[in-house]
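Trying the structure run again after the queue cleared.
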Amino acid sequence: MKTSGYLVNRQKFLSHAEIDQLLRYCESHADADNAFGRTTWPVRYMLVHLALRTGLRVHEIAALQIEDICLNRAERALYVKKGKGGRSRVVYFDSELAESLSRFIRLKLVWGQDTANAAPLLTGRNGRHYTPTALSISFKTAIKAAGLPNHYSIHCARHTYATHLLAKTNNLRFVQKQLGHSSISMTSL
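Done. Tokens:
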């Protein structure tokens, strides 16, 4: 697989063991923060979980609103309103992420944050969406804290998602649609 003019090599995606290590670390710290009423690690865990399980671009995660999430059993999906090139798409996800999203939205209520349809999913201190830069830094902080190689970035989560989804489904067209690539050649390079 090649993306953005460079080959996706082993240093561009996390292994299953690294994914588990990162998610476990973030979740345990989220639980600890939540016990003390802090929001830092619960938000970071949600960010990491979203990035690894949806392959969204960082600006797409930053722009997510509560209304963009469908958590019913028939169709667990996120609606990306403005992906790359202004294109919209639907991204499907598993029941594990659905449960994390449900729990996170309930936590937002406990924290006194807005959960109305137009409210941001990930809210900064000012009540607005986090910036893509802030999310990238937060992801890097989680990588470092979990003891994973420093070369992993939030964009590596996108490569991770694509690589593992292709291995699981063997369906390049589905991977293309999930990632929001305009052509299958972009996905297959």
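Residues 16-35 form the longest helix (20 residues). Worth checking whether this holds up in the mutant runs.
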